[in-house]
Amino acid sequence: MGQHDRLQPILKYYRRWKRLPSLRELAEMWGFKAHESARKIVNQLIEQGYLTKDRKTGVLLPSRRLSHVRVLGSVSAGFPSPAEEELGDTMDLTEWLIKHPESTYILHAHGDSMIDVGIFHGDPVLVRRTSTAQEGDIVIARVDGDGWTMKLLRKKAGKYYLQPANKANKKYQPIFPTQELKIEAVVIACIRQFNTR
Asked: pLDDT, tens digit, for every residue of 139-163?
């Protein structure tokens, strides 16, 4: 059984139960009769940086490396060769997307005013709380005290305004503030899952 085969059931278990399996559970997963065999593999995984232990309780915890996803390169219409897979780097999606965890949260998009930038009704969007943004950013903002909305931040004649992204629907028009444009957050990513199996 290879390293990949050892880690996959751990990841699957962690996603379901939000904790890592015990030594007894790991021994069962890997087909060992003795806990000591599982302990040796766990120690190897700790040395390799996939797992760690809580210093006080000794409970197994996932390390950042466990949640890394392999990066195999770019693809046009096919899969990388086995040689490319061996050379692939890894990427931690949390580390890549979330630079400021204390000010990052998820909102669900409502409506279809942003479909031209790939944000559809019901999509979870990852946002970072900030009061500043650059032209072209997708922002969560409020104009003249009205409700919060998600739009593109644009600038015309030195003044900022909000631009929807649905050219097909003429009901969505740019929003020009008469008094105040308050930015609450900037959208970092839109999260869409295509296959839940």
From this structure: 999 999 888 999 999 999 999 999 9
